[in-house]
Design goal:
SCO6880-like, 13-stranded antiparallel β-sheet, two-stranded antiparallel ribbon, globular
Length: 559
């Protein structure tokens, strides 16, 4: 992202230079298509020499069909084979009834009463502690070997705030993303902004608590009327930031000695002090060693693990040591008071996302100071039905979109204002921004390759290069210069989920989101055939979709 200013007296800062990665190749086919061209020609020649012209023609036609499917793309930039595999995968999943989910006593789910469906089915939630003593929820996703921590924010908003302050917040957030590239093991960072109707229970509880019985009756009546009427039509805005870490060790990190029978795992001094204190509280002698039952119950006991993969305890210790610094840096970006969510808060957030009707009961329990009783094992829906373009879950229905292209040209910091603001036609809306930073070495290589690719495309034409090619080359050179000067390079995605109480309201909600996307200069495309997975990713709990697909990044980037 590039920052520019316009004017002299009142400079307006704009942002742009987003680039969609382009794979170099002949005739716009990309690297994979170009390789298939040469492989097809070589195979045709070899078959002609060995079997004759007829079989050579058959091989040539087959390769042309494959290459033609790669070359033909729709408006979203997906080729024929990508769209075809999506439809085939959806058809096979529906035939196996994988689009249906039932929980409870009559459900075929054997591992829980109301577990989360889909990509979050095997997830586990632990209680961990940071180096400053703050407890936080640590979400484990064994299918991708990811661990996520969710930070709750209280955004200050841009109203009644000077533009210079807003520009400073944007610059600091950019620096925050750039610094994430230096965080070992960090896989992704997501920012989620959710708007929903405000039930007003917290306001009513606060007013009733503050009312003085000896005050005039008219004043008491006015306060009670305000508590009853103010929440009508109002909306609440919540935001949280999720940091997702991988448990896989990098190639430069030496693996620890695997656990053997009769040998205990090594722990740090701080962790050993906690274990010794626990043993003393239970009346045991710390010098005699600590049994496995003395370990904190929220994290699994050490066990033999796959080579090159950290355990949950190691991840909790590693994240806990770095969390205070990340929280302090995030506070300067306009995020307000930032703190890590507890397991109960995270479970309640996911519970309300799948069942919006439960929000009022949870708010009433909080206002009364009672425990909601929601755990991660009971945060899922009792029923969920996925269709080709929508998702029906519990008491609501949702549609999820994904941005297929960045804004064209330069934009100002308020470009996403309408998309993030509450909308009267949407009961609940979540906008999630996913950032996947490149490490400095990879970022430098990608920036240099982008310059080479743009230069090749600009000089491939005969005569004067086109204006679009010239602009692309200029943008690539500017990106490479900024990256060399210390800027970060991230992959970004935008997911938008609109939730309504009645499935009959889905067409109106879809039209409203399309208008909001256009006002924000984003091209949104409905996630056909993957509504359940996209809904889980848009929750902002650490699901990184590219790590859950069959095709590796190296092949998808080469298309």
């Amino acid at each position: 992202m590039t920052t520019t200013t316009t004017g002299t007296e009142n400079p307006v800062r704009t942002y742009g230079n987003w680039a969609v990665p382009v794979s170099p190749g002949l005739f716009g086919l990309g690297t994979l298509g170009t390789v298939l061209i040469f492989v097809g020609l070589a195979a045709t020649v070899l078959v002609q020499l060995g079997r004759g012209w007829v079989w050579a023609g058959v091989v040539l036609v087959l390769f042309l069909l494959v290459i033609g499917g790669i070359a033909k793309k729709n408006r979203a930039g997906r080729n024929v084979w990508q769209t075809s595999t999506t439809r085939v995968a959806w058809w096979r999943g529906k035939r196996k009834r994988q689009h249906l989910y039932l929980a409870g006593t009559v459900a075929p789910v054997a591992f829980g009463a109301a577990r989360l469906p889909g990509l979050l089915a095997r997830s586990e939630l632990f209680l961990a502690q940071s180096s400053t003593g703050e407890h936080f929820a640590l979400l484990s996703m064994p299918s991708a070997r990811h661990y996520a921590v969710v930070l709750r924010c209280e955004p200050e908003g841009s109203q009644l705030v000077d533009q210079d302050t807003v520009d400073t917040w944007v610059a600091l957030f950019g620096r925050f993303l750039a610094d994430l590239a230096h965080e070992p093991g960090l896989e992704a960072c997501s920012v989620t902004v959710e708007t929903a109707p405000d039930p007003g229970t917290r306001l009513a509880a606060e007013i009733h608590r503050q009312i003085d019985p000896s005050s005039p009756a008219l004043a008491q009546a006015m306060l009670r009327e305000a508590a009853a009427t103010f929440p009508s039509g109002s909306a609440s805005v919540r935001a949280w930031v999720t940091l997702t870490f991988t448990a896989r060790r990098s190639a430069t990190v030496e693996d620890e000695t695997p656990l053997r029978k009769g040998r205990r795992a090594k722990v740090s001094k701080d962790a050993q002090a906690v274990l010794d204190l626990t043993a003393l509280e239970r009346g045991h002698d710390p010098a005699a060693g600590t049994d496995d039952e003395d370990l904190p119950s929220m994290l699994p006991a050490p066990a033999a693990k796959p080579k090159g993969v950290r355990t949950a305890r190691e991840m909790a210790e590693q994240i806990g040591q770095r969390l205070p610094g990340l929280v302090a840096q995030l506070r300067g970006t306009g995020a307000g008071a930032v703190r890590a969510m507890t397991p109960t808060e995270l479970a309640e957030t996911v519970r309300v996302a799948y069942d919006p009707a439960a929000a009022l009961a949870l708010e009433q329990a909080h206002a009364a100071g009672e425990d909601s009783g929601v755990t991660w094992e009971t945060a899922g829906p009792m029923a969920q039905v996925e269709s080709w373009g929508a998702l029906r879950h519990e008491s609501a229905a949702s549609i999820t979109w994904a941005a297929i292209s960045p804004p064209a040209g330069a934009v100002q910091s308020s470009v996403l204002g309408r998309l993030l603001a509450p909308h009267p036609g949407l009961s609940r809306k979540r906008v999630t921004f996913v950032y996947r930073p490149f490490d400095p070495a990879t970022a430098a290589r990608i920036a240099d390759e982008a310059v080479k690719t743009a230069n090749t495309v600009a000089t491939a034409r005969r005569g004067q290069p086109g204006a679009a090619d010239t602009l692309a080359l200029s943008a690539a050179r500017q990106t490479a210069a900024e990256q060399a000067a210390g800027a970060g390079l991230v992959r970004q995605a935008v997911l938008v989920t609109a939730t309504v109480d009645d499935p009959a309201q889905l067409p109106a909600a879809a039209e409203a989101v399309d208008q909001l996307g256009g006002a924000s200069r984003l091209r949104l495309r409905r996630c056909y055939g993957s509504q359940a997975a996209s809904f889980a990713a848009a929750l902002g709990v650490g699901v990184v979709l590219p790590k859950h697909v069959v095709m590796p990044d190296v092949f998808r980037n080469a298309l």
